[in-house]
Amino acid sequence: MSALLELDGITASYGAVQALFGVSLAVAEGQVVALMGRNGMGKTTTIRCISRLMPLTGGHLRFAGQNGAALGAPAMARLGIGLVPEGRRCFAPLTVAENLIAAARPGAWDMTRVCALFPRLGERMGQVSRTLSGGEQQMLAIGRALMTNPRLLVLDEATEGLAPVVRQEIWAGIRELKAQGLSILLVDKSLREIASVADHAVILERGESVWQGDVGALTPDLADRYLGV
Ligand code: ATP
């Protein structure tokens, strides 16, 4: 079976400055893959390339059987990339419900199902999203991506800067999504949480994928060498 998402040696630059020097990874249907690496190693840039917010300068990108490099960001989203960007961007003046409705596309995910995943959102449907806590905004950002009924959910540092108890709620939500069979690519630095949910890990070092394997094979040595933990 071919992978849902496949990157083969992708390269990308910010102007004259090359940021990616060859990133390869694959996400199979129903798989959870963690993209890891220290600060500035190219994780967000890789995600920007996958969601077509940034052009590739080389390599191959296939998603859902299509040549992703030939598609723009809206086409990629329609094809099923559900991006939860770093910084959990929501439409601040809109309510929780309005944010969710604005993202909705036909499919199995609707507001009821999002609220079952994150009950806190259900309690705040009429609240303006600007006034939500950081954790609630993150739940809303994930809810918005789910409302598009993605084939692949892409999470960039979904728990960064949140209080431990809220982080646990988000991780519980991610584990539930996995149990429901959703394919997920996530960037995170928490080895422990990644070990609890991911099947596979890919490590980036200076814009290149330098290691990949089962999360169970992520030894303390590897973590020390590539992740600085
Ligand atoms: P972090 O964990 O800190 O978010 P990251 O692994 O996501 O890091 P990227 O944000 O992808 O790393 O950055 C990869 C490289 O690209 C870095 O050297 C960074 O300085 C550079 N870079 C990122 N964004 C820009 C930009 N807008 N303009 C120029 N260079 C950039």
Automatic annotation (TrEMBL):
Superkingdom of the organism of origin: Bacteria
A GO BP annotation: L-amino acid transport
InterPro entries referenced in this protein's UniProt entry, alphabetically: AAA+_ATPase, ABC_transporter-like_ATP-bd, ABC_transporter-like_CS, BCAA_Transport_ATP-bd_LivF, P-loop_NTPase
Annotated keywords: Amino-acid transport, ATP-binding, Nucleotide-binding, Transport
Pfam families with a match to the protein in the record: ABC_tran (PF00005)
Gene3D superfamilies: P-loop containing nucleotide triphosphate hydrolases
PROSITE patterns: ABC_TRANSPORTER_1, ABC_TRANSPORTER_2
Protein name, per record: ABC transporter ATP-binding protein
Source organism (scientific name): Paracoccus aurantiacus
